[in-house]
Amino acid sequence: SQTIHQWPATLVQPVGSPLSLECTVEGTSNPNLYWYRQAAGRGLQLLFYSVGIGQISSEVPQNLSASRPQDRQFILSSKKLLLSDSGFYLCAWSPGQGPYNEQFFGPGTRLTVL
Amino acid sequence: AQSVTQLDSQVPVFEEAPVELRCNYSSSVSVYLFWYVQYPNQGLQLLLKYLSGSTLVKGINGFEAEFNKSQTSFHLRKPSVHISDTAEYFCAVSEDTGFQKLVFGTGTRLLVSP
Asked: How far apart are CA B69 and CA B37, in angstroms?
């Protein structure tokens, strides 16, 4: 069966520090991968998605970036964190590219920027 | 572009009472509709989805939803709630444009009390 992992589970970082969040999927190949941010009272905001290795699409301009160095690995990064980057970050995957596919979510990373 | 509105940010209800969580969407093309549930500090889990066919969709944990194209709605219902149903519920829509990008509503917090 497929599983999705995210780490770390929680992170407290000072403003201006770098960030690296990792997401890996097991049990499937060539998944679509997604990064979301969830801020209190604002639902889920799609940040990036990827249909293959090295293929990244950005939905929201900001100081975050994403990379997909391997088929089942998705990384969210920042060179300098802002206070507004605090939130709950969720990684998800879906099989294939059809719009009818379910997305499967990881357990999330709670990021607090101080 | 599609959008999703969940008018109720919070719905309090007593245990064993029925509940309806409202969801309306906007789109100029055919859509696929999803309901996800999120328990505290966890990722999202699919409750049910509407792809085509019968407009009444049954999901896990006794939930069901009805797709109403004329009213562009996809309300979630449960005839008798349990304390364990306390969670955040998200409605999401994906347009039938060839690639799966989910747009989420802002969520409804269901609070079930004894």
From this structure: 23
How many C-beta atoms lie closer than 10 Å to residue B108's C-beta?
A: 21
Residues of B within 8 A of A23 (CB-CB) are none
Contact B100 A100 (CB under 8 A): yes
pLDDT tens-digit map of B56-67: 999 999 999 999
Tokens 């999705």 belong to: A4
| Cα–Cα nearest to A80, from A12, A17, A14, A11 | A17
Distance CA A43, CA B86 (A): 17
**pLDDT class of A80 with cuts at 50, 70, 90:** very high
Q: Is A61 on the interface with B (CB under 8 A)?
A: no
Smallest CA–CA separation between B24 and chain A, in Å? 15
Which residues have CB under 8 Å from B28's CB, separation 6+?
none
Give the residue from A10, A25, A105 with the most B CB atoms within 10 Å of its CB, the best one to mutate: A105
CB distance B34–A41 less than 8 Å?
no
Residue with token string 């306390």? B86
Q: Taking a C-beta distance cutoff of 8 angstroms, is the pair A95, A103 a contact?
A: no
Whether the predicted pLDDT of A61 surpasses 70: no
Beta-carbon separation of A41 and B9 below 8 A: yes
